[in-house]
Design a protein that fits this description.
367 residues; alpha/beta; eight-stranded mixed β-sheet; 27% helix; 23% strand; globular
Length: 367
Amino acid sequence: RMEEPRAAVVEHEFGTDVCYHERLANDVVRCLDCAHHCTIAPGKTGVCCVRKNYGGILRLIVYGHASNANGSDPVEKKPLYHVMPGQLTYSMATVGCNFACSFCQNWDLSQCARDLKEQLKESRPDMLDVEVSKLGYRLSPADLVEKALQHGNKIMAFTYSEPTIFLEYALDTARLAHQKGLKAVFKSNGYESAYAVSKMVGLIDAVNVDLKAFKDSFYQTECKARVQPVMDTIVRLKQAGIWVEVTTLVIPNENDSNEELAQIAQFLASVDPLIPWHVTPFHPDFKMTNKTRTPRSTLARAREIGLRAGLKFVYSRTDDGGMDTRCPNCNTLLIERSGFSASCTAKFDTTTGKCLACSFMLPGVWH
C-alpha cells in the first residue's frame, strides 16, 4: 500500500471542502486520508462514499453537514478513561464509513451513504452528493464549537461513524476548539494513513482505536479491511504524542479465544504497557444477529489475560471494579466508575494526574 505521497499533493485549506489528495493522470486522484488510499476516477467516490472526485479535485461532500451532534455524551462512553474523567463531550459525526462491519452498532449512520450509493447506482449515480448532503444538519466548524461552548462542554468528540472519512471537517473544528480552550478527541477504527496522523498532531489530543481482532481474516471478512494498518496507526499515534486508548469488542466464537485475546494484549504491551485496553461486550446488531451477547465471565477472562500480558490498565464492564482506575504503582483507587459516570477520589490530583499516595504520574489528558 502507498504510505507516502508520491505525486502532486493538493492540501486542504481551512474552511473548504477540498480533501488531502494526490493528482494523478487524466484527472484521477488518490485519497490520502485512510489506509485504503482509494484511487478515484472523475465523478466517482471512494470506499467511504463521502469523498468525490470533481474533475480532478477531491471534495468532502459532507463538509459542514453533521448528521449527529449533541452535548450530552460522557467521555467515558467513547470510552476514554484517561481523559478528563466525568466530563460531557460535544459529540458529532457525519454519515459514511471506510469499513463495512457486519456487527456495526451505529450502522444506520455509518452505512447509509453506502446504501444510497447502491440505490442510485443504476438510475442517478451523479446525485449521490446531493442526496448524502441532505442527511445532515448544516453546521460549520465554528457552529459546532459554539454549540459546545453553549453546552458547557470541555471536549469536542468526533465519534459514532469514522472521523477519518471527514478528517478535514474534524480538524478544522478541532483547530477552532483548541483556540477556545477545548480538547478534541477521536473514536476511530484506526485506519488513518501516516499522512492523516501527521495532520492530526497538535489538533487531536486523544484517540480511542478499535482493534477489532488480531486475525486478518476476520478484518477482511467482517470489516472489508485489514488488521495491519490498524496496528500501524496505534504505533504512529503513540510516536506522535497523541494519547491512545484501545477497545476490543469481544464477540463470542469470533475473537474471544485465550490465544487471540493474548495476542492483542501482547501487541499493545509491546507498544506501551500503559495503553488502556477496554474489553467491551457485543450485542447482536446489523448483519451479525446469530451471535449471543458476551458473557461477563468472558470480559473478566479477557481482563485477566490483559493484566497477565503486562498491561497496567485493562477495563471491563464487570462488577468487580473492572472499570475503576487504580495506581499501577501502589494500587490506590484513583478513579471510580459506574456505568458512564466517573468520580475521582481524594488521592488523585485531577490537574496533574498524580497519585497522591505515592506520587506516580498517571498517564492521560487531565486538564
